[in-house]
Design a protein that fits this description.
Subcellular location: Cell membrane
Radius of gyration: 20 Å
Family: Belongs to the SPACA4/bouncer family.
Number of helices: 2
CATH class: Mainly Beta
Mean pLDDT: 76
Oligomer: single chain
GO cellular component, one term: plasma membrane
Pfam family, one: UPAR_LY6
Shape: elongated
GO biological process, one term: sperm-egg recognition
Largest sheet: 6 strands, antiparallel
Structural class: alpha+beta
Distance between the termini: 11 Å
CATH superfamily: CD59
Length: about 130
């Protein structure tokens, strides 16, 4: 009986740890250069990929976490404050792990499978 409870607890902990959304993060990049790292989003945030154009000819990119209410909107930055637009960015959102790049969701599924197998093996080792 205690073995079953321990196994259920271990699997539950794995699912709880996996629920935090992981996204690629890049504050600002130009053309195809955007140096990314992985970031854990806060609750209520989605991954986003931002694409835009600065001074009407330089492609810019950004990636990261964004509150759901700010998804799929265009933001413009002006300089000086109310003068001409320096750059505009369209932020498109998605809501599964590392979805804001060209990768597929398969690595997230593999991580979940490996975590489940590790939980079962760990539970068996403790009993």
């Amino acid at each position: 009986m205690s073995r079953t409870i321990l196994l259920l607890l271990a699997v539950t902990l794995c699912f709880t740890a996996v629920q935090a959304l992981q996204c690629y993060s890049c504050k600002w990049g130009v053309w195809n250069l955007c140096l990314t790292s992985e970031k854990t989003c806060a609750p209520g945030e989605h991954c986003f990929s931002g694409k835009g154009e600065a001074v009407k000819f330089i492609d810019i990119k950004s990636k990261g976490c964004l509150p759901a209410a700010e998804c799929n909107k265009t933001t413009s930055t002006n300089f000086p404050t109310d003068s001409s637009t320096v750059y505009s960015v369209v932020k498109t959102c998605c809501n599964f792990n590392l979805c804001n790049s060209a990768t597929t969701s398969l690595p997230g599924v593999l991580q979940l499978a490996l975590a489940s197998v590790a939980a079962v093996l760990g539970a068996n080792a403790l009993v």
